[in-house]
Amino acid sequence: MTLKATTSLPDARAFLGDAPVMAKRRVTEAGGASDTKQLRVAIVHYWLVSMRGGEKVVEELCRMFPQADIFTLVCNRDRISDFLKTRNIRTSFLQKIPGAQRHYTKMLPLMPFALEQFDLQDYDLVLSSESGPAKGIITRADALHVCYCHSPMRYIWDQFHVYRHGLPWVGRALMSITAPMLRAWDVTTSSRVDVFVANSDYVASRIRRFYDRESIVIHPPVATDDFAVGKGKGEFYLYAGQLTTYKRPDIAVRACTEAGRKLVVIGEGEQLAYLKSIAGPTVEFLGHQPFNVLRDHLSRCRALLFPGTEDFGILPVEAMASGRPVLAFDAGGARETVSSPQVGFRFGQQTTEALLETMAAFEEVEDDIDPHAIRAHSLKFSSAVFRDRLSGLIEQQLSTHGDRSADVFRRRPG
């Protein structure tokens, strides 16, 4: 089939001589780290309402590209780092809805519309940070779009039924109606991405399953320099993180209660009241704590208990950066981080009994574990390693992307 141009030749030549060609020249000439400073860069993150693993990745992206603008659906400046507050952050129309900063997850059906309202036509390089919807933005045709995928959206894919069961009947009905449309949109927008980067082999397999796309695995940055090996033998087991169903904190609480082992729980969530009801006298709940308290407990614990399934799981690496072993469920990113008996143990079933057996096996060899060897292992996941690998990938992609797009311009008539 032959398509006829509807634009006159003079108009077309004027267009080709304008911004897109200049932008393509910037992309083509960006052959090294110093050259990328001339690029217009956009970082798209689903929402900025806390400082968790995804937001730490955004911080590193901003350090790699200090000229970048941030686009996000909703932002709560009171809950983000001082570093991110200094950035140019642009929010969507969802920000203007009363209560959006607290109830943003309930606005999931509106998020595709909000994302596509962002105007990214001036940007040469777009870096989307995907876990909630972020990759669905519309870029300029000749821009490079790299998606760093923490996870395909759990609430419409493999965790759909878990999230749905936790809603009242109105929410369950709405989710049942909207989820098929959101899945279709999510799959369709995967074609808008030039390169997928997965944060683990586990996420790479899910990208392949849901989007039928290959990805390059680059583990997320862990600020290993913020942690140090603790002194002496650990004093207690530690659970830290959200107290939510899929993370299975109940397994850690029940195991330590039955074994009479001291457990410190740091975190908050909807399961707090239930966990207190099943906990024995050896379990202590500290609620939400600032980073310095978490860091102190990581350095003093016997081991971190990690009974949930995470796409990667930064907390186990932070524990290892503190020289402490990890007892983790054998699934998700823990298979890549808790990778040998020298740094921790994995248990094959997500049950209290399996964790109790693993705790017993750990305690038999606890005195022989070398904290400094554990920390050395954690350095494989440092921020420096992340920046080095991702910057190399982006530079390579900019070079080949620029060549392909330059060929398109050269083939145009006139």
From TrEMBL:
One of its GO terms (molecular function) is glycosyltransferase activity. It holds the Pfam family Glycos_transf_1. The keyword Disulfide bond does not apply. Keywords: Transferase. Gene3D superfamilies: Glycogen Phosphorylase B (3.40.50.2000). Residues 231-366 form the Glycosyl transferase family domain. This is Glycosyl transferases group 1 family protein.
